[in-house]
Write a structure and sequence with these properties.
Length: 334
């Protein structure tokens, strides 16, 4: 049984605790807050395996799951990787792309697994979209749209781009299997916290590898103010389009065979058949945990590895710079 240390059982870490308790792992928990340690004890973690010191069990465990505020990710990951532990760290991997790259290189030198919590990769609907794009079912992808918004309490450690928009940045990178060429962003700080609480990010992706019929226009909206809860991705291609509503348990994706027909004097919009697709209702966090444990056992590269984390941070960094400078920011080709 793999010995796993969970560092942080706060707002999102409590979900990690719940999932970990349902899996065959030997669990240790660290959190600086005594009331959170008490919650872990009530969940069944032995008192002898609880500590306010995140490094207390470093010599006893095989792997570490880090669900602490983003500012702590770099130092904690570095310490555990240098100690020879496999690491899963919640997104964002770090708040600076240079630090993310340092962790990637450190994991490689130490021969350790470094996985990042880009959870939407582990949703079967996302994997279907990626496979359908790669298999040519959409034809040339023209447009990607993502809305990750809704009225909720803002995170204290980052603005909404690192907190929420980064989810769909990574999802788009994953679906298209490439990174954007340029980023343009507009943000608002309506709450006056010194961090953005509304953001609109526009990205230009290059054509598919091996050629293609043009760039892909991608847009992500994220914020804390609109009523309701939106977690939707839209793909528009020359052959097919699709909507994916991540709020739905099983029937997340609808596909549309819509296309434009050139006729004398202009174009006609021809609406084709619509299909609704069913997917497994398994919780993505549970799938993500099982994938990390499998990587620890088999040494296979994670689906969301350190480089995926680095690429997502790199885009958010560029988006923040674009919002500050009020101009588009180009990204270096990898």
């Amino acid at each position: 049984m793999i010995k796993v240390l969970l560092v942080g059982v706060g707002r999102w870490g409590s979900n990690h605790l719940r999932v970990a308790r349902s899996l065959p792992v030997d669990l240790f928990v660290a959190d600086r807050a005594s009331e959170r340690l008490e919650l872990a004890r009530q969940a069944g973690v032995s008192q002898s395996r609880l500590s306010p010191d995140p490094t207390a069990f470093k010599s006893e465990v095989d792997a570490v799951v880090i669900a602490t505020p983003a500012q702590s990710h770099f130092d904690l990951c570095r310490q555990f990787l240098e100690a020879g532990k496999d690491v899963f760290v919640e997104k964002p991997i770090t708040l600076k792309s240079a630090e993310a790259l340092q962790l990637v290189e450190l994991a490689q030198r130490c021969g350790r697994i470094l996985a990042v919590g880009h959870i939407f990769r582990f949703d079967s609907a996302t994997q279907w979209m990626r496979d359908a794009v790669a298999g040519g079912e959409f034809g040339a992808v023209r447009i990607l749209r993502g809305c990750f918004s809704g009225f909720k309490r803002p995170r204290n450690d980052t603005g909404v781009m690192f907190a929420d928009a980064i989810h769909f940045v990574d999802t788009f990178n994953f679906i298209l299997d490439r990174s954007p060429l340029s980023v343009c962003a507009v943000t608002e700080d309506f709450l006056g916290r010194g961090m953005e609480d509304e953001a609109l990010i526009v990205m230009e992706y290059p054509p598919a590898r091996g050629g293609g019929s043009g760039h892909v226009n991608a847009r992500i909206e994220a914020g804390y103010h609109l009523p309701g809860k939106s977690r939707e991705v839209v793909i528009a291609g020359e052959k097919m389009s699709a909507t994916c509503d991540y709020n739905v348990a099983q029937y997340k994706v609808r596909t549309f065979r819509n296309h434009h027909v050139r006729k004398p004097g202009g174009f006609e919009a021809a609406e084709g058949e619509m299909h609704q697709l069913e997917f497994s209702p398994e919780e993505p966090l549970h799938t993500q945990w099982r994938a990390f444990l499998n990587s620890v056992q088999t040494r296979q590269a994670p689906l969301a590895d350190g480089m995926a984390g680095y690429r997502a941070v790199r885009v958010i960094e560029a988006a923040l710079e674009s919002a500050r400078s009020r101009r588009p920011v180009e990204l270096e080709r990898e």
